[in-house]
């Protein structure tokens, strides 16, 4: 890794690469692991630094990054595209912070679960 991370996410992308986002600090940075080359490279940073967030692969190959904390619970979401584009316009989450699970079903519907 190019940066020390804990409380981060790791999401397997359709290309076989792995997206690592955020982490304790908190961090806004993200990086891609290429298993064929066994190497990490930086990619577009998230708008919000966050730790303990969720990251869910969606049907279109984008990754929905939700919640977590930045010294306080976050009620924001971001979409990461493998091209390196980060979209910060997904809707605000109505329950801040402690979202423990986000899932996408085969229809593309997204469900948030707060324990």
Walk me through this protein's architecture.
It contains no helices and ten strands. The protein has one domain: Neuraminidase (6 Propeller). 0% of the residues lie in helices and 37% in strands. With 115 residues, it is an all-beta fold. The strands form three sheets. Strands 1-2-3-4 form a four-stranded antiparallel sheet, with no helix packed on it. The chain has a four-stranded antiparallel sheet with strand order 5-6-7-8, with no helix packed on it. A two-stranded antiparallel sheet has the order 9-10. The protein starts with 8 loop residues before the first strand and ends with a strand. The protein is globular. Strand 7 and strand 8 form a beta hairpin.
Record the SSE blueprint.
Blueprint: E1 9-12, E2 18-21, E3 30-34, E4 39-43, E5 54-57, E6 63-66, E7 77-80, E8 86-87, E9 99-104, E10 110-114
Antiparallel strand pairs: 1-2, 2-3, 3-4, 5-6, 6-7, 7-8, 9-10
Q: What is the approximate shape?
A: globular
Give the number of DSSP strands.
10
Radius of gyration (Å): 13 Å
Main beta-sheet annotation: 4 strands, antiparallel
Helix content range: under 10%
> What strand order characterises the main sheet?
1-2-3-4
CATH architecture: 6 Propeller
The CA-CA distance between the termini, in Å, is: 31 Å
Number of helices: 0
Q: Per CATH, what is the topology?
A: Neuraminidase
Mean pLDDT: 85
- Name the CATH superfamily assignment: Kelch-type beta propeller
Our estimate of the beta-strand percent is: 35-45%
* SSE order, one letter for each helix or strand: EEEEEEEEEE
């Amino acid at each position: 890794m190019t940066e020390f991370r804990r409380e981060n996410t790791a999401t397997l992308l359709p290309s076989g690469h792995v997206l690592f986002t955020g982490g304790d600090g908190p961090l806004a940075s993200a990086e891609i692991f290429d298993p064929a080359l066994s190497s990490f490279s930086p990619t577009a940073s998230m708008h919000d630094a966050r730790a303990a967030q969720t990251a869910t692969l969606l049907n279109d190959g984008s990754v929905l990054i939700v919640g977590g904390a930045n010294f306080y619970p976050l009620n924001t979401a971001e979409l990461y595209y493998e091209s390196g584009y980060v979209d910060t316009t997904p809707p605000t989450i109505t329950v801040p912070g402690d979202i423990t699970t986000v899932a996408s079903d085969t229809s593309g519907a997204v469900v948030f679960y707060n324990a």
